Task: inverse folding
């Protein structure tokens, strides 16, 4: 058992709820997001998109648009490199602009740069595109049909990704089971819906391109922009200012960067490109629609013996991050419960709909919804309390999953028990009145992906800390990306702790490919652990250099010194001390700049089978969530009354920011549970590409919410940290589904569990019941 | 997004507004709160050449009544002014409640009662409660003015009896003999969601007997729909829970909601059944309008 | 009525006086110019954000005569003659308003994109109702969508300001 260290006792900076480093800029309106930036002579640009789901492009006539006063350039595929790109190198299948065919409503056809927004909008309407409309596939279940039209020429049967993984012997496990159950679930297409729309500003200086972008990963953007335009990485600088949320939707190139770079090159002017809200929905890259068949065999006591997950997902017209999404969907089903036999089959198919990608909890929340619902059905059949069934199967620390993920720290059992206690589960399961119910769902997630998106031996994270010459401040340079989650703040806390410095004197320059060292960015809940490890190393290097120097003035070996809270002192005689600033200044005078650096490469992880990399991580978080709901059994209206999340997220760097992550993660899961779904008409056009009918919940819909922790320390991580930002999204849909079931006796197998679906299920149940009584 | 070009006028008084409207006719649109007009213009559902703003016509914001007289609500009164009016809260609480529940705070500060009526969409929340209370509206043009019962104003989606040269200036709610009224709406989220079904009722009770009842449905037809069969179920009857359920069933039957992404016909019909029963129950229990 | 100027392209501009954060600025705007764009592009007050441009998200909330409205649904010409407050007008010199402080203390800020609108919606509530209930707070910000916080800490931050101010005489705390 790992010894648990409690921050606060030993630490002076981490473990404390310091205020956000960017807070003041944000509450005063001074924080400039990409769309707020202005450069002299800046033009604005927009992309023209296809109105058809599947169409051959016969002819594009840009002449009228070019003649409109104020228009500076109109470009099509002829004006940009024609090589394909993507985010997942296994399947590069996108072009900057469509060449022969448009593959969905919203596919990119041309772009305009002009002096102002109004002119751009007018010019877009003046581009004449002649299309030959082709039959489209809008139903993923028909994508693999023999007579289905082919969407991408290189992918027969419209299969984008096919996965068949088999661990142990599932058939044998089922044969030996006391009870084998199959359920089918459907997860809807959802959208990340950051409140800040995407934008990008491109500026050229000779052969050097600078792109300000609303991105979760300047590094990947830099990599893909450089590749696309044939530039060395060093000639492309990608940076961001403030980011208004991402949730996975700003992880891959949006097209704005490529089109903007091309327009800026042609016009010789900075170009700001942006999406309107409806264009964000059309570009999409949100959560896949998934069809999920689950079969599970259990013994008499409810111990899980084997699981078969047989899934199909609607990928939309392009790969996006979908290869990873497809693998994640099955890979992470093995984390929470300990069972030896597992089989996972998946088809990710192309359709003529917007591409899907990574959304908070990447690939995992919907399968988790399915599995948690499925487990409740099993508990019901066996006459077991759903929590008892989960405790019976809950993973233990220091175990290995059938698909070869090593789980180090794991306080899942404690989390379940605490959730049961604080929610008054036992009492409420028995006493809640009809229409009111309580349900549980568990969740887990990676603390950073074991492997980056494209194959490379670069470290996953790196950091540099430079101390000011008089020691009165220090600057952390990191490629890590603060998209709102607060990484700038916690990384500065980590830097200060490692240096023996104070948070208040830290500055940060982050997410700038030129000024800061490489880091892969904000995705897969990786930064606290991975970027944090690099920052810790950099901070310790600063500290060690100071201790070395101070050692001679104290006349003791450096090993007998330490630094904390800006004081360098002799450990045995703490009254012998010098200030950090004093020693830092001396260092600069005698040795030059005081700089520390660090980098992080995860240990070798995972098995040797195909797709073994996806789901590997140095550490896994665990969560138990309980939700109490009230259902209006006449209208189907679902009212969330109260919810409790108990998290095993390792040691905590900033409790206030950590709980805030849980709030938001639950909130997204809750929206997808009942309210959110991207809907299409019969021609593939989105029907609700707005925030009135794509209903993210309002402040009035949010229940009373409690976020609690269990003691945990992850030995593979700096200061024992783990992730939190995505893990808390994964249990929510299942917990709400189970609460609705408890409240009403109806099981809703498809997301979202909208009022109408609940109403219909209740109506059908009443009809069944009355027939049974006749 | 952007707004298509237009010429803008902000006349100083009503007569100049009427003159401009006469001059431009169907090429012009009246701008009151703008929450709906500008929304539609951004989508190019409307592309007026001329916008005539009523911003200077502050007299049209007034809400007033003399004891025993009609209640007058100026067409430019915002939803929040209606929701927060002490006069309405005291004497016509069902109207102020309907205004409060119809939209979020930002929209309520801009959206006007006149706009909510003239816009003529099936999901509009104020017309049903105003109709059950027997409201009339005043339409003014250079030719003079006329008064129209609100119930006769609507012809269909975006279709009303208003002429191109007329401006809606006020809503008149007569002094009430009804004993209770209410409007219940159902949206798909607790704020920022259009009504997918709504029911307004006004009843006159004498002990347990319902002497009169008016029921108007929102989002149940192309226009606010008077549920006459449901009314007939309860008028002259002693009110029982079973009777209210029957009225709900009748209202559901005579409703003609369309299927949309917000709800199927079948679902909306059943909502109307439930809401009608609940609204009747509430109005009967109430001791105020 | 404001003076109307016509440029060489026959475009008409209205000369308007806009009172923003206590200062009056004279601007030439087209009739179709939206307040949100004039604030951001002509006055560089980019604290007012654009999130949906249809009045659904509240990111562009400003106060007009103390009332929160969506500036994406207001013509700039219509705002003349009113007092407009943007997020830049909430703090005084370098001193933060109590509600801004409370947002920082209660970790109510994440990505920050909804924050200006939230603070203005909260300000407007507290001005006319200094001691709101939790329900009233939630109602007052229900036109402001946030994707990061689940509103938990935003509600807490607004209520914390209400708790700090003493109830006025005669007011029920």
Result:
């Amino acid at each position: 058992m790992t010894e648990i260290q409690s921050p606060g006792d030993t630490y002076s900076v981490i473990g404390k709820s310091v205020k956000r480093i960017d807070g003041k800029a944000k509450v005063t309106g001074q924080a400039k997001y990409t769309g707020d930036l202005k450069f002299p002579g800046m033009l604005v640009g927009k992309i023209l998109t296809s109105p058809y789901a599947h169409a051959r492009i016969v002819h594009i006539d840009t002449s009228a648009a070019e003649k409109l006063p104020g228009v500076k350039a109109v470009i099509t595929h002829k004006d940009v490199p024609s090589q394909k790109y993507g985010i997942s190198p296994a399947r590069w299948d996108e072009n900057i602009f469509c060449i022969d065919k448009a593959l969905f409503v919203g596919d990119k056809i041309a772009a305009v740069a002009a002096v102002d927004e109004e002119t751009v909008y007018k010019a877009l309407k003046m581009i004449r595109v002649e299309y030959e409309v082709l039959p489209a596939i809008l139903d993923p279940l028909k994508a693999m049909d023999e007579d289905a039209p082919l969407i991408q020429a290189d992918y027969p049967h419209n299969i984008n990704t096919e996965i068949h993984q088999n661990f142990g012997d599932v058939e044998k496990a089922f044969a030996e089971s006391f009870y084998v159950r199959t359920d089918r679930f459907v997860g809807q297409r959802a959208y990340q819906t950051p409140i800040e729309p995407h934008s990008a500003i491109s500026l050229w200086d000779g052969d050097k391109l600078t792109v300000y972008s609303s991105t979760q990963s300047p590094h990947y953007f830099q990599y893909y922009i450089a590749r696309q335009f044939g530039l060395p990485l060093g000639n492309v600088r990608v940076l961001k200012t403030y980011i208004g949320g991402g949730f996975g939707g700003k992880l891959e190139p949006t097209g704005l960067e490529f089109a903007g770079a091309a327009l800026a090159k042609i016009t010789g002017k900075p170009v700001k490109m942006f999406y309107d809200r409806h264009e964000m929905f059309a570009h999409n890259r949100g959560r896949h629609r998934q069809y999920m068949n689950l079969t599970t065999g259990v013994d008499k006591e409810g111990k899980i013996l084997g699981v078969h997950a047989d899934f199909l997902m609607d990928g939309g017209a392009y790969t996006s991050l979908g290869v990873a999404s497809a693998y994640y969907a099955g890979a992470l089903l093995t984390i929470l419960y300990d069972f030896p036999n597992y089989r996972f089959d998946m088809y990710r198919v192309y359709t003529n709909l917007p591409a899907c990608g990574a959304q908070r909890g990447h690939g995992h929340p919907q399968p988790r919804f399915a599995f948690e619902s499925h487990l409740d059905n099993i508990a019901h059949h066996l006459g077991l309390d759903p929590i008892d069934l989960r405790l019976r199967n809950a993973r233990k620390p220091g175990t290995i999953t059938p698909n070869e993920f090593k789980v180090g720290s794991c306080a899942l059992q404690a989390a379940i028990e605490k959730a049961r206690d604080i929610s008054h589960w036992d009492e409420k399961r028995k006493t809640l009145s009809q229409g009111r119910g309580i349900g549980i769902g568990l969740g887990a997630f990676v603390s950073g992906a074991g492997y980056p998106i494209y194959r490379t031996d670069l470290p996953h994270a790196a950091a540099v800390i430079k101390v000011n010459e008089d020691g009165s401040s220090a600057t952390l340079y990191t490629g890590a990306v603060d998209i709102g989650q607060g990484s700038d703040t916690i990384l500065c806390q980590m830097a200060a702790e490692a240096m023996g410095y104070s948070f208040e004197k830290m500055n940060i320059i982050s997410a700038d490919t030129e000024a800061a060292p490489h880091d892969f960015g904000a995705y897969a809940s990786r930064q606290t652990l991975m970027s944090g490890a690099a920052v810790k190393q950099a901070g310790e290097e600063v500290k060690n250099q100071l201790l070395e120097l101070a050692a001679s003035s104290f006349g003791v070996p450096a090993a007998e010194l330490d630094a904390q809270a800006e004081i360098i002192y002799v450990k045995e005689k703490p009254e012998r001390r010098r200030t950090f600033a004093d020693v830092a200044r001396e260092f600069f005078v005698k040795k030059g700049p005081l700089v520390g650096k660090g980098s992080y490469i995860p240990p070798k992880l995972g098995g040797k089978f195909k797709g073994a990399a996806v789901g590997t991580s140095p550490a896994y978080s665990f969560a138990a969530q309980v939700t109490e709901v009230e259902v209006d059994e006449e209208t189907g209206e679902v009212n969330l009354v109260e919810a409790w999340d108990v998290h095993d997220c390792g040691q905590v760097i900033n409790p206030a920011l950590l709980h805030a992550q849980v709030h938001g993660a639950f909130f997204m899961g809750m929206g997808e549970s009942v309210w959110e779904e991207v809907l299409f008409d019969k021609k593939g056009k989105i029907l609700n590409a707005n925030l009135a009918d794509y209903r993210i919940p309002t402040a009035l819909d949010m229940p009373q919410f409690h976020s609690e922790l269990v003691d945990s320390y992850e030995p593979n991580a700096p200061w024992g940290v783990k992730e939190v930002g995505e893990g808390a999204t994964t249990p929510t849909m299942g917990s709400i589904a189970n609460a609705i079931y408890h409240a009403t006796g109806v099981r809703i197998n498809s997301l979202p569990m909208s009022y109408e679906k609940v109403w219909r299920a209740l109506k059908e149940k009443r009809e069944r019941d009355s027939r049974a009584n006749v | 997004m952007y707004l298509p070009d237009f010429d803008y006028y902000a006349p100083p008084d009503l007569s100049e507004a009427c003159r401009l409207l006469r001059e431009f006719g169907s090429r012009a649109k009246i701008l009151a709160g703008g929450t709906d007009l500008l929304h539609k213009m951004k989508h190019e559902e409307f592309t007026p050449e001329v916008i005539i703003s009523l911003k200077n016509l502050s007299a049209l914001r007034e809400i007033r009544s003399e004891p025993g007289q009609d209640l007058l609500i100026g067409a430019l009164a915002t939803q929040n002014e209606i929701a927060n009016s002490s006069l309405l809260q005291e004497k016509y609480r069902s109207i102020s409640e309907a205004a409060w529940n119809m939209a979020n705070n930002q929209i309520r500060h801009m959206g006007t009662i006149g706009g909510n009526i003239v816009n003529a969409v099936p999901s509009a929340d104020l017309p049903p409660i105003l109709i059950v209370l027997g409201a009339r509206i005043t339409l003014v043009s250079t030719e003079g003015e006329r008064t129209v019962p609100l119930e006769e104003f609507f012809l269909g989606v975006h279709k009303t009896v208003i002429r191109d040269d007329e401006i809606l200036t006020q809503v008149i709610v007569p002094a009430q003999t009804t004993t209770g009224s209410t409007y219940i709406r159902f949206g798909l989220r607790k704020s920022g969601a259009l009504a997918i079904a709504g029911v307004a009722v006004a009843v006159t009770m004498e002990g347990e007997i319902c002497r009169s009842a008016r029921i108007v449905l929102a989002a149940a037809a192309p226009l606010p729909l008077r549920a006459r069969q449901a009314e007939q179920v309860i008028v002259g009857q002693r009110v029982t829970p079973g009777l209210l359920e029957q009225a709900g069933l009748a209202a559901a039957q005579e409703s003609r909601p369309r299927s949309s992404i917000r709800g199927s016909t079948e679902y909306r019909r059943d909502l109307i059944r439930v809401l009608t029963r609940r609204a009747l129950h509430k109005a009967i229990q109430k001791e105020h309008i | 009525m404001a003076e109307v100027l016509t440029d060489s392209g026959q475009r008409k501009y209205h000369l308007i006086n806009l009172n923003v954060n206590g200062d009056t600025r004279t601007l030439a705007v087209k009739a179709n110019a939206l307040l949100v764009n004039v604030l951001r592009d002509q006055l560089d007050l980019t604290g007012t954000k654009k999130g949906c441009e249809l009045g659904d998200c509240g990111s562009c909330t400003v106060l007009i005569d103390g009332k929160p409205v969506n500036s994406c649904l207001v013509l700039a010409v219509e705002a003349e003659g009113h007092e407009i407050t943007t997020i830049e007008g909430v703090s005084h010199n370098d001193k933060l308003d109590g509600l801004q402080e409370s947002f920082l203390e209660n970790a109510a800020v994440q990505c920050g994109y909804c924050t200006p609108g939230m603070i203005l919606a909260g300000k407007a509530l507290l001005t006319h109702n200094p001691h709101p209930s939790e329900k009233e707070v939630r109602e007052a910000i229900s036109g402001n969508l946030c994707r990061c916080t689940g509103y938990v800490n935003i509600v807490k931050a607004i209520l914390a300001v209400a708790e700090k101010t003493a109830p006025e005489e005669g007011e029920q705390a």
Notes: The mean pLDDT of chain A is 96. The longest strand of chain A covers residues 304-316.
